[in-house]
Amino acid sequence: MSRIGGRNVVFAWVVGVVCIAVVGTLAVLTLPLVTTGMGLLGGSGPAAEATAEGDGPDQCRDLYPEALWGALQYTPGAELTASTDAPATTAGAFVDALAPTVRFTCTWSSDIGSIATTVAEVGTDAGSIAASALPGQGFSCSDDGQRVLCTRADGDLIETIEAGGGHWVSTFQTAWHPEGYARRVGNAVFVAE
């Protein structure tokens, strides 16, 4: 085999390896953007399947619309932990009385603060019980016919409890309050019915 003059095999190999490393790095860096973009374009994936089935979200990722998911993920120091822990709340006796069956709890921690959201199953009368019991504990409640939403704010703490139709969503936000968080996660459960 003849060689072409002026070509260096070692240099060609080094350039080839550097090119492969650059392409690999770019692929890794763009992966979060591709998944977010696919969700925005098609609305397919786990969240859409859960909505189509009508039984609500089955895991933390299903609970968040794409825009909220992106905002949470890219908050400095953000970390998500999924569990089946009981709801975080200041209304402990109320929660104990209703005994929600926890499907999952999503706990976000960040440099700003923390957010814990629990999705659970409760009795179908939980909304009316919440509307009568929680105002005495500092919550303000509203009923839209499908669900009762009770909210309590105390300094950096914002707590919401939504119940209706056998579903429960509670959120405990400490110092970190993404815009419309409680409404958006509540819609993922109640609008999916």
Condensed summary:
Keywords: Membrane, Transmembrane, Transmembrane helix. The chain has helices spanning about 10-40, 45-55, 60-65, 65-75, 90-100, 125-135, 180-190; strands at about 80-85, 100-110, 115-120, 140-145, 150-155, 155-165, 165-175.
Tell me what you see in this structure.
By secondary structure, the chain is an alpha+beta fold. It has 7 helices and 7 strands. A 7-stranded antiparallel beta sheet has the order 1-2-3-7-6-5-4, with helices on both faces. The longest helix has 34 residues, at 9-42. The chain is elongated.
Shape: elongated
Helix-strand pattern, N to C? HHHHEHEEHEEEEH
Major sheet summary line = 7 strands, antiparallel
* Structure classification: alpha+beta
Radius of gyration: 23 Å
Walk across the major sheet and give the strand order. Answer: 1-2-3-7-6-5-4
Number of helices: 7
The residue-averaged pLDDT reads 84
Report the strand count.
7
Keywords: Membrane, Transmembrane, Transmembrane helix
